[in-house]
Specification:
single chain; about 250 residues; alpha/beta; Alpha/beta knot; Trp Operon Repressor, Chain A; 2 domains; 5-stranded parallel β-sheet; 3-stranded mixed β-sheet; 12 helices; elongated; binds adenine
Length: about 250
């Protein structure tokens, strides 16, 4: 079972996420445990302060090392053996992607450290944190939403959580291509029709259509992804055709 600890000054932010949908189900079925810790509880000083003014002056406050070091050390001790990944969410981190989610899903214990509006004392990054992750090139008010994004994408990959293992083998960023379009009933909704091939019952043709649509969509929306993957000969042929079609329309 994967153990997830989250250090935050805003534990209530996590209750909705961990108590709903797949993340809730994952806990109920014993695939994961969530432990939300307010690191203010570890502050040694009388007023339970977790931040202080920056040395050298300047605007904003800086998170002190002591509460975060002590909280992580306590969580490591409670977990017993093993060395957890200690993950800091921050805009300076490595940009998160599906490959990183897959890699983290193989770990037994993850500790997420979330700060809010302020900086971290550099010694936290240097001596405590094993990974720094950003969820994209934009600035959030804190690491909490970023931690939720990372946790969500990791937990859904844990064995048994989605039930249907095939559903993540077909995920957009696992295959390297975007997914093909999906349709359900009715076949004709107010004059908007489902492509005939999907109603044909011919599975070979349907698979072919899906694969081709997947390439088409990737070419239209994320051509950068096509540079990164190994295409089959058939896929290369389709891609060539699609590129020609696109050119002739320009
Ligand atoms: N904290 C603030 N902005 C962030 C981002 N983009 N990713 C991760 N943590 C953050």
């Amino acid at each position: 079972m994967m153990k997830i600890d989250v250090l935050t000054l805003f534990p209530e932010m996590f209750t909705g996420i961990f108590g709903s949908s797949i993340l809730k189900k994952a806990r109920e079925q014993g695939a994961v445990t969530y432990n939300i810790v307010n690191f203010r509880d570890y502050a040694e000083n009388k007023h339970k302060t977790v931040d202080d003014y920056p040395y050298g002056g300047g605007a904003g406050m800086v998170l002190k090392p002591q509460p975060i070091f002590d909280a992580v050390s306590d969580l490591k001790e409670k977990a017993g053996s093993g060395s957890p990944r200690v993950i800091l969410l921050c805009p300076q981190g490595k940009t998160f992607n599906q490959k990183m989610a897959e890699e983290l899903a193989g770990e037994e214990h993850l500790i997420f450290v979330c700060g809010h509006y302020e900086g971290y004392d550099e010694r936290i990054r240097k001596y405590l944190i094993t990974d720094e992750i950003s969820i994209g090139d934009y600035v959030l008010t804190g690491g909490e939403l970023a931690a939720m994004v990372v946790i969500d994408s990791v937990v859904r990959l844990l064995p048994g959580v989605l039930g249907n293992e095939e559903s993540h083998r077909k995920d957009s960023f696992s295959t390297g291509l975007l997914e093909h379009p999906h349709y359900t009933r009715p076949a004709d909704f107010r004059g908007m029709k489902v492509p005939d091939v999907l109603l044909s019952g011919n599975h070979r043709l349907i698979e072919e259509w899906r694969e081709k649509e997947s390439i088409k969509r990737t070419l239209e929306r994320r051509p950068d992804l096509l540079e990164k993957i190994e295409l089959t000969e058939q896929q290369k042929k389709w891609l060539e055709e699609l590129r020609k079609e696109k050119k002739s329309l320009e």
